[in-house]
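Q&A log
Question type: sequence-to-structure
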Amino acid sequence: MRFDLTDLRLFVQVAETSSITRGADQANMALASASARIRGMEEALGVPLLERGPRGVKLTPAGRALVHHANLVLQQLERMRGELGKYAHGLKGHVRLLSNTIASTEFLPVALAAFLSGHPNVDIDLEERPSHEIVQAVTGGFADAGIVVDLVDLGDLETFPFATDRLVLITPRGHPLSRRRRLAFNDVLDQEFVGLSPGNALQDYLARQSARAGRPLNLRVRLSGFNAICRMVEHGVGVAVIPATATRYLRRPPIGVVHLTDAWALRKLMICVRRFDELSDHAKQLINHLKARDSASRTKGRTSLIKAGPI
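Response status: OK
Response body:
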């Protein structure tokens, strides 16, 4: 039985996506080649690793065992790279980081830019996901770390504070709600909304909150980012819920910015890992860098952004 690292990485990606096609795509491999590799692994072991169906694949008991050991091997490889990197600066390390929408768009770009500039021997694979999926992926060993809201069940994961942000409602100038200081989310569900693209973690989160209230969001248009959403709201297309930090995109301060009173609107972002001591040196360096961000400057920045318009 001989598996190489390419086999192990491919199988982990197939297991995580529940799809040979998507796993092959993440591995930058042709579908035919990926299928052949997995068949070869099954033939070498003498047992099926996947249950194939019309909607994807599921792991067999042997497949789950292989994923467990493959993750251990790949994590050990990253630890080796981290330790050897102290002696050979040309050796590249790799850290897989999952993040929810707010962290990936509002906090991580500056933080990761500073880290990558100071660590030229480390690459970061950043992927945006809903918080509950991030917890599952980190727990299952499919990612080194994740950044999630503290409202999800974090189980036995180790956590560290990262940032705090609040969701606010923005309205067009002259809108009936524009002069309100505070509102509950349920009180605005009769409005027409501008939202984020399908599959976006924050948009899915808002959809779940409206579903709990029994009133689905009335979305007039979906856009890819907060800048575009602010432009639409400024032109009177509808209202929107965005992070308070994203109000920096507003070009007309008189636009209405209203606090949401719901407890879930105040979002504490947490870094989560399975076991910090078991991470590679590169992953530990990244986590320590994110933990060390200047919380005072973040608070000052959020306050100045919110003061840009009436609340």
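Response note: The first helix runs from residue 5 to 17.
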